Amino acid sequence: MENKWLNLNKEKLDETGKVLNVDSSDIQKSKSKQILKKLIFPLVQVSTIILSATSGALLGYLEKKEPSGYPYAWDFPKIYFFGPMALLGFSTGNILISSKNYKKTGLRGTSASIIVFLSIVISVASLVFIYMAVQNPPPPLQGYVPPFNVSIDYDTFRKRNL
Amino acid sequence: MIPLEREIYNVINMKYNLDCAVWELTLECNLKCKHCGSSAGKARKNELTTQECFNLCEDLSEVGCREVSLMGGEPFVREDWNEIAWCVKDLGMDLAFVSNGILIPQVIEKLNLLEPVVVGVSLDGVKETHDYIRRKGSYDAAHQAIELLLENDIQTTVITTISKTNFKELLELKKLIYGKGINWQIQVCMPFGYFDPSLVISQEEYYASAMFIVSERIKNKFKDMPVVGAHCYGYFSHLLPRNNRWDGCTAGRSTVGLTSEGSVVGCLSMGNNQFIEGNVRDRSFKEIWEDPNSFAYNRNFKRDDFGENCIDCFYGEKCKGGCNSTSYHLTKKFHNTPLCLRKIEEKLFDVKIPKKERSNVQEVKSL
Fold it and tell me: Model's pTM, two decimal places?
């Protein structure tokens, strides 16, 4: 990023500000702060997406590499993926609404706030899913009770009982 | 229909959301200010009747208008202002007033009941200057009005219109406003109506006032000094931090002006009959607002519409050439404002255009 404050006629700028007692160096400092502030929100959003997606993918990969043998365990990676995917969807929607509709229709504060709020809720939810997964690993294999539809030979069962 | 539902309806149907209607309730005024763009004084010959005003309020509500700002002339000289204001309130729209403050003591009780979101009072400088621009005694009246509004917990905005006459008094005005919870809107006086064109501030003075606004916002907490520049301040400065989003002039897109005889214009500050889109006596406001041919200068904006000041600007498509009132009054063209912080910085302070933003300049030069 080019620093526009480096090559300018600072004397002339100071002279202009002096008419109303303005010190241009105050403004220069504030401009840098503003750029930093602007970067915080998108950075947090992008990091959340990356963090959620990476954690979900990693947990899914680990489960595949060393299966726990517990079929329900696969539900967790599905949840991990849902969070970041939904977040991605909302972020995309948010960007689309901001850039297209705002220009055309002047979409106002309330709706924009709702979108941003939901986006934040989903970000937090996806982080909570990850936290839950880390805190609650799948139960050990010996505690496993097979569900009804897993290995029942229906024909054998019927013949025996006829 | 409640506003949010209307808003969703408008977004789905790609219609324009109306944020604010600025309504000249009457052109009659108890002052004759030297800078008045509306040339206020006597009422127009054929101003809307009370019933026509009620109908207009209903129409505004039907298109989903969020706020109605009643001004003049002086709105409080119109006898039925209170009934019209209540009609706005009863239809669920926010209500605001712009006044010179003289009649505020007489109407304060009614205002209290109406609970407007804001009352704007004009204050153009220290006592001598304000009285010179407006009338002897008008400064004390404005001051008293502000005190009364504050005592009654009514949100107050001081509106200062700057010209060469009062430009340097911003520092004095600041002392009056600081820490009182008063909003302060600074705007540039444009050469139309009664205003003497030779008193329009120069580009340098304009830039100094923009620096002043920005520096006050940096130095003070916003609650102590909520100072803003009006739409004539901007856009996409190289050096000054931006506090407000600017997507181009809002006239006919999210704001509208209504004259006291029922004409619909994009902005009352355009001050010219050629920009009238229709009259509510001939067509309903809804028809005018939703007509695809209305406000074409803004709604159907194309890159070809730029004037020479803006044609090579990197941010042109986003900015659309700044405030159209300023642009028209200073250059007789839309989308061509000479009061642009960015251009002034390049011209006066030799700020270099960054590499990524140079493509438009080269494109225009090659034509």
Answer: 0.76
